[in-house]
């Protein structure tokens, strides 16, 4: 039995609040260990990276050269990947590239009514590190989603780090890196890889920003190096919220709920519907499909522990609930999704209608699958080209402009007790 | 004597690296104290806020109502501010508003060549908290710089917190809040104010994002609540880099260097010039002006400890140095600033020519004065409207689109071992 709530229940607000505030992640306290790793890599460089890689990934290497993935190694990996999979990766790449190219911000240089020149100039971050997890969570699609926006932005150096525990590296990840235009690859991971990217070593030049998902050690390391370099968000377990009217195929919705649930036992799948019949059909379909799923254990745990079905009278009136949940993924599986879309305030990505399962967005839709989790869509956005560029403000006054604006600047500087600020203006005006 | 480097010196690269990596901030370890404050406010709400305010700000209040700034209190504050200062604030507001209005991103909804509908929709963050320091660093200009972009973005609730140690509140800060359209003001500060904004209390509804500068306690609290809410950057001490050719008035440049230095003993002012004569003139002018500066002690400490003059042969060839410094403020005090501007890669804001002292940008230029410090212009930007909006991705396939894209999504899902992802597509295609 999955949690079922009804908006007309007297206890609903309390139950909904509990659902919203429920913690799905056990935060491991690895901060002390991570601090030591960062400090050793910062001071010792390559040697520390080699030591930690031997210890944590059981991968002995004499030098960083051995941990550097060569072009020949990528060629060999590509030869192992079935052509159909390569074609699928290329299609995904091309669609992601096309979509993200539209996000590139434009420079804005203008002269205001009194003649002051202002502007905003955008430049790419010079070097970016992309963290790719090893093992089963080593997803080629994530390589594309992180590297392509950087490439579109114009980042010159895109450095991928990917641990290869016991020497095992997913050839698809190397294929995706080649397709996306990654410029350097090191088979290292964990906090030591984050430190190498942030501080640099004898072999690895430092980057300016680090993106990509990772385990608790990687997340803690990213938090700690933030400031020395930029980081992307710290991603939590994945989530989907489906809003569905009675005109749905219950099997399709069940498949969508399970596609989230199979990610992680801490993933969350929620269905909001105005049809009690559909709710029961979907619940039964989930149960039936679970039994045939290779990752049944993971998906079942997620669905039982964090899944929920919420019954409402009216889907449009239920939109405030969706906005409070602020889901990473929102499916509007209704006859008129555009009407509901108008009421969406907080969501990472919205999938409209019956033929847009969320998995299309994970791979080939073109939009990014790195999206805000854990209600952070209230204040943040998915990964985009904007995360790989930065804006420089431009200001240019002539003597006339300064005469016009100067007295106000002097007044404010003096009012804040900053006389040297005021003087830097008055001295130019002979005041 | 201020530090002087010469690019032709054999030791230059080492000296420059030392200048770049020099720490200017002593990081106070207040994390444990802050953790306790956050936890108490989270669980006890108003009561904890009242207790901490009594203890840290020496301000006894029976209820949060007493700590809520009323419209009448703002009216009274406004009546105390000289009209010229109010006019200056209004001018600053209007220019900041006009500049930031150009930053508002546009929704992008389009249909791709195969008929898939995609898009990016921008919505405002619903509620934002603005932290304003108390005491001498309580700057009305900062209120404008933080609140106006939020207002332009369309944020409905703008909640200002400002501590009033011993009950003292700067009337200019209230005036700026009124002009900027702040919707709620509480006279609270420190980690307890950050906690109240992030978690909410009985009186204060929680916000989704917190911006604004503060002391070590505020910075540590912001780092800790990050994730529950969004935060802006953690700002470090202010900096200016001036690139100057021989055609400069040394007194003007000295005034600009000191305008930075007077902020904070940890502020940094650097001059790069191709003229040894100018270097010496500026150094002498700084010395002369220091003696007449009300904040002489602060500015002198900053200049002596962190100031520097770097001699180069050719300013254009020296641009890589400027980009490595990645200054918060960059003045191009040269005959042809546009030529140098083309080579700027990393800078928070650039001030062009001889008549654009940085202080104009602090107050009335129109661009934001909240800018990336401590070399973070390599990967981040100044505060803008973009920090108060978020983007939702839109994806809409019809049955035909799904038939075209589905097989690639299925192939990638299977290749990643995510069968339920693949099934959510195949089930719709009867595969």
TrEMBL record, chains A, B:
Q: Provide the reaction this enzyme catalyses.
A: L-histidinol + 2 NAD(+) + H2O = L-histidine + 2 NADH + 3 H(+)
Coiled-coil parts of chain? none
The record ties this protein, via Pfam families, to: Histidinol_dh (PF00815)
Q: Does the keyword Transmembrane apply?
A: no
Tell me the cofactors it needs.
Zn(2+)
Which residues does the record give as NAD(+) binding sites?
Answer: 131, 192, 215
Q: Which HAMAP family match?
A: HisD (MF_01024)
- Name under which the protein is recorded: Histidinol dehydrogenase
The record lists the organism as Roseibium aggregatum
